[in-house]
Structure formats: C-alpha cells, structure tokens
Amino acid sequence: MGQAGLGFREPTTVERAFNRVFGALVGLGLAPRDYYLLQVKGRKTGRVYSNPVSLVPFHGVRFLVAPRGRTQWVRNVEASSEVGFKRGSSTERCRLRPIADADKAPVLHAYVAKYGSVVQRYFPVPAGAPPGAFAEIASRYPVFEISAVDPGARP
Fold it and tell me: Rounded mean pLDDT of 103-124?
C-alpha cells in the first residue's frame, strides 16, 4: 500500500512508465475526451507537476476522483488554490473543492461505471454495484468538484 500511514496506493514501475507515456499523449490531445493532464504546483517545491487524470461528469458537474487514495498530487491539490487541466494546446484554470465523504458514493459509483476497465483494481466494490455500496469505502478516495476559474474558457 505505499508509504505507511499516508493512505494511498503507490504506482508500480510499470504504472509510472505508462503514466508518463499516456500523459504525453493526453498533453498532445490524443486521448479520450474526459482525460486531461492535471497541472498543480508542488506544495513544497512550487514546481508544476503534471499527472494524467480522468474527469467524471455527474448531474452536469465535473468531478476529479483519486483512485489510488491520498497521493502526492492530491496533497498538492489540497494545498493549492488553483489547478490547470491541459488537453492539447489549451489549459483550463480551475478550483477544486473537496467533497465530504457522505456525498461521495454516487460520484464514485459513476466514476467506476465509466472507467471500470481502467480503475476497477483500485476499488473493492465492483462496477454495477448500487451507489450505496460505495458509501462504506468513500473515505478512502478523495473526490473534488471542479469549477472553472473562467467559465467561458472551458475546452
């Protein structure tokens, strides 16, 4: 499970390599529609880090789910007032609002339903389970509601 007590699943060497390659494709705009490069400043270094992420629309709002738990990018997001979502040549500036555990289950359900072939291994609840089944595990997965800093700039 990665570093003790941090509550996240560290990527394997193969997953890291895949993320680099896939991230490059996302950055060029050569990935499925809901995939972006999350750009966030490091909370200690101030350096901008990029990670490929998938956004899930739910009731007209976009959400970002951290399937591996409270990773480095999650902690950087928590310390940052603004992030970027890059796809191709455009970057959308956004704010992310953490969602309370009590409100995560339907978003997690939608996320696993949409991306289950890629993320199911991180979730003990199978795709197709009722939304309420995700309530028990909600505290393990950070979920953020996305709002554009400039709503007119949405790609």
Answer: 96
Kindly report the CA angle at 112 between 79 and 123, in degrees rounded to 5?
75
- 13-104+142-150 is classed in which CATH architecture? Roll (2.30)
Residue 37: the pLDDT is: 93
Q: Supply 112's token pair.
A: 């696993």
**Beta pairing, strands 83-87 & 35-41:** antiparallel
Q: Are 74 and 66 in contact (CB under 8 A)?
A: yes
Residue 125, SS3 per DSSP: coil
In which band, very low, low, confident or very high, does the pLDDT at 21 lie, cut at 50, 70 and 90?
A: confident
DSSP H or E segment with residue 27:
helix 13-27
On whether the CB atoms of residues 73 and 79 are closer than 8 A, the answer is no
Statement: residue 75 has pLDDT above 90:
yes
Token pair in block for residue 17? 């390599």
CB 118 within 8 A of CB 5: no
Whole-number Å distance between alpha carbons of 87 and 39:
11
Residue 125 CA to residue 146 CA, distance in Å, equals 24
pLDDT for the residue numbered 6: 42
Amino acid (one-letter) located at 90: S
